[in-house]
Amino acid sequence: MDGQVGTDTSSVRIVTTPEQAAEKAAVLVEALPWLHRFHDAVVVVKLGGNAMVDPELTRAFAQDMAFLRFAGLQPVVVHGGGPQITAALAAQGIASEFRGGYRVTSAEAMPVIREVLVEQVAAGITERLERYDDLGVRLPGDAGVLTGVRKGVVVDGAEVDLGRVGEVVAVNPGPIRAALDAGRVPVVSTVAREQGTGRLLNVNADSAAAAIATALGAAKLVVLTDVAGLYADWPDTASLIAHIDAAALRAMLPSLESGMIPKMEACLAAVEGGVSKAAVIDGRQPHSVLLEIFTDTGIGTEVVA
Questions:
Q1: What is the pTM of this model?
Q2: Which of 29, 203, 246, 272 is most buried, with most CB under 10 Å away?
Q3: pLDDT of res. 274
Q4: Domain hosting residue 156, numbered range
Q5: Do the beta carbons of residue 42 and residue 216 sit within 8 Å?
């Protein structure tokens, strides 16, 4: 063909150079001790931020969960859905009000919130996972998984009624373990049944993930967010903390930005509840979960007891 490449590339094979092959092998070798360390281990991943709404990040997240499952780990996904809930409430003519960092949840808003979390967000995640051997399975928290009590909050010295907002007081790990034993990736939506009444409660996804990780005896809790991790002197990005213990974190909590407090409280609750490690990582980076679990340095901020 006079040295020219034809338009049919079906038989073209891209050649990997020895250097490229060596780089790939080094990545696999670096993952080896972590594959051994986490084999059969439960890893709870709280999905939030841009990783929930950016299509490319959502696709990469599903790939990460499939990789974990096929690599012998047992990932559990716990999610919220703040932006989607706000949009759905607005479409229904229901105003969104936040007090003390929590969404005030009326009886009118609660069915809309459940619909968004279970039928929209969880359905989207499981649909992505179904492309990998039908891995995903939805587990609404109110379907016998999460039990909660109503939560109040103090704002400017006064107690505020948040309505149907709750905190998790009990986790039934049975349905989650059944899904894991079947080789699936459970996707837990953070709605709970109120203790005593059975009414629906809207629960914080960070604290719910910590409670689920504790109940399952997870090896690790990973919280995805929209920052690189915890900073000692925000907004100085050079002050990113790679590793912190529970005592030091507890001392820092009062000084943190309001958005980071529930995430760091979740990490603290998890490690104090017996989870070996917790981490807050940047969900804006594709495949951040794999980088955290399977590399020597990890990313973000790791919390230990």
A1: 0.90
A2: 203
A3: 97
A4: 42-236+258-304
A5: yes
